[in-house]
Structure to design on (259 residues):
């Protein structure tokens, strides 16, 4: 009897027209049966938001490709909560244009989609590309090739309990990559500020902007892996608890009695 192919749900936050999602889906078709549910437009930095205040409209582009006017987390919820006749065996999100490193993972719709798959008990990963050097284009082929390798590893092994994966790939030719590093999240230094401007009618409007973020240089982090031209694989989880702080907060002797 021929072994049944695993079903893979592919989504992203760059939208259905991004070449990254096309490259990811094409590579993963060599591993399993790929279904795509993706936003109809770019949804970057929407984090883990859901659509709750208006109906969600879904359109099929072909038998296994759907677009919706929702968020990446909406897409995964649809893929795992009954919109598809059968649930997926793996959720893959990306390939994102630009890295998701350090605290970027809090804001990223790409990472949130993988997180949502994990919350439904499925193995899941998010995969992103580092920003190209000036004048260069994104090399999605290398990230797609690694996504295939990773998916095969996930199906042949057991994903560690309580874990989904965040992957960042240097924007280099495959032969220039120096390997794979299992990493921790690094520390991003943001320099955002609120920029106030005036429109032609004299009304105020604002941008959130500022200088490009930097990071704290430390070995073993996702930032450091990319600096060394390595693919970074960071295991993430849903438990934000800072266990070291529990004992200290207990000593605060918090109560409902006013002092």
């Amino acid at each position: 009897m021929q072994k049944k192919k695993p079903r893979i749900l592919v989504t992203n936050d760059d939208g259905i027209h991004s070449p990254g999602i096309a490259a990811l889906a094409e590579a993963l078709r060599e591993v399993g049966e790929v279904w795509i549910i993706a936003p109809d437009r770019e949804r970057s930095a929407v984090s883990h938001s859901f659509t709750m205040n208006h109906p969600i409209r879904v359109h099929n582009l072909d038998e296994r490709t759907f677009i919706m006017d929702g968020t990446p987390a909406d897409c995964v919820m649809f893929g795992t909560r009954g919109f598809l006749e059968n649930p997926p065996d793996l959720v893959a999100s990306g390939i994102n244009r630009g890295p998701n490193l350090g605290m970027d993972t809090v804001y990223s719709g790409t990472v949130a989609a993988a997180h949502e798959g994990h919350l439904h008990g499925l193995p899941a990963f998010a995969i992103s590309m580092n920003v190209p050097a000036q004048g260069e284009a994104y090399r999605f082929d290398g990230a797609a090739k690694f996504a295939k390798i990773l998916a095969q590893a996930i199906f042949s092994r057991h994903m560690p309990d309580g874990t989904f994966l965040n992957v960042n790939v240097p924007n280099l030719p495959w032969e220039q990559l120096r390997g794979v590093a299992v990493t921790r999240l690094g520390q991003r230094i943001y320099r955002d500020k609120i920029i106030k401007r005036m429109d032609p009618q004299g009304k105020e409007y604002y941008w959130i902007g500022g200088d490009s973020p930097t990071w704290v240089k430390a070995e073993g982090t996702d930032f450091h892996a990319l600096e060394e031209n390595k693919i970074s694989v960071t295991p993430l989880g849903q438990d934000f608890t800072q266990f070291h702080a529990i004992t200290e907060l207990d000593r605060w002797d918090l109560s409902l009695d006013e002092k």
